[in-house]
Amino acid sequence: MQGYHRKEHFWNVVIWPILWPWLLAQFALVGLCVIVGVVVWGMNPEQASWGTVAALMTALLLGSSLNVVAFIALIRARGRRIESKFEQVLGELEQHASMLCERSGDSAALSGEEAKTQRPSARIHHVIAQLAQLGQCTPISASSSCKLPDSSAQQTLLDDLANKQQQLDQLLQGRERAREESRLKSSYLHLLQREANALFEHLGDLSTASPDAREADLKECRERLADIRALLVNVVEEAPEASIMVSPAHQRRVLVVDDGPVNLMLAQQVLEKHGLEVEAVNSGEDALALQQTYTFDLVFMDIFMPEMDGLETSRRWRAYEKTNGQPSAILVALTANADTAGRERCLQAGMNDLIAKPYQPESLMNKVAAWYPDDVPEVSPS
């Protein structure tokens, strides 16, 4: 291969392509000045005029020559700086490639003398070939000369990633729990507004009702006030255990019957969060319809409901169980009249137990745990 002469290459590639057009322009300018001088001398061929023209021509030629010399000097200086920087970068690249080749057992690197005689393009192609050859060392194998990071460092990294993932999961769970609590409180406030508006309307009607109808209306107002009180208690003092999902050994099926949307929602949410299978209806007729489809272990029954109250619903429930041979469910009354007379009426209707309104959420779970202690754990009060 013919040797690479850097100076000759530099002049052929950089200097002459720029210098030749510039020199031609300078020669054209000098020629134009000579023509002008000859014309002037021909028109006035005196010795003094010819001396002046000669002096001007000499100054013009001297200025053009200085221009050419300065141009060439600037081009050479700039070219040397660019070439020096390029040689430095290319040399560092060759040095790093040579070090990688030595580590991998490849001795295909160029020596310093060989690099000086090679064209820059050839040297760059040689470095690319070295890097391509080193790329074949990347697949991981037992006999590969490419060393993997220390196993302990890998294990530390994996443990750290696992911890970060666990922390992220906890944060996501906390975010979902906060969203659920916010949604519940919004639902509570909406129901509170609806119940309060209905109560105010009922109180307005009560003021114009007859004395005979006031006693029944007062009982209904008492039920509505108990619902609102239960709602406020659960908004302000939510039990922390209610956000923990519990999986009982045997999942019991529970039915909640209550015409009040507040108590119905609270009861269903509390029971479901503790792992129970819950159905919720707002009338005795719907409860009896579900009895024909499902078998319930325990039923929370509101006593004061329109059309068919809880006592009549309990009597028909027991009659259906007796007629169809269905296992007896535990019927628990939900009522604000928890005195002796009220308890006696519930027991005569076939109920097993009673919870006084307003009640805390843990009261429902503790009542289920009292009847099924082996399957449902008790909940400590908040």
TrEMBL record:
<keyword id="KW-1133">Transmembrane helix</keyword>
<keyword id="KW-0902">Two-component regulatory system</keyword>
<dbReference type="Pfam" id="PF00072">
    <property type="entry name" value="Response_reg"/>
</dbReference>
<keyword id="KW-0812">Transmembrane</keyword>
<dbReference type="InterPro" id="IPR011006">
    <property type="entry name" value="CheY-like_superfamily"/>
</dbReference>
<keyword id="KW-0597">Phosphoprotein</keyword>
<protein>
    <submittedName>
        <fullName>Response regulator</fullName>
    </submittedName>
</protein>
<dbReference type="GO" id="GO:0000160">
    <property type="term" value="P:phosphorelay signal transduction system"/>
</dbReference>
<feature type="transmembrane region" description="Helical">
    <location>
        <begin position="53"/>
        <end position="75"/>
    </location>
</feature>
<keyword id="KW-0472">Membrane</keyword>
<feature type="domain" description="Response regulatory">
    <location>
        <begin position="253"/>
        <end position="372"/>
    </location>
</feature>
<dbReference type="InterPro" id="IPR001789">
    <property type="entry name" value="Sig_transdc_resp-reg_receiver"/>
</dbReference>
<feature type="transmembrane region" description="Helical">
    <location>
        <begin position="20"/>
        <end position="41"/>
    </location>
</feature>
<feature type="modified residue" description="4-aspartylphosphate">
    <location>
        <position position="302"/>
    </location>
</feature>
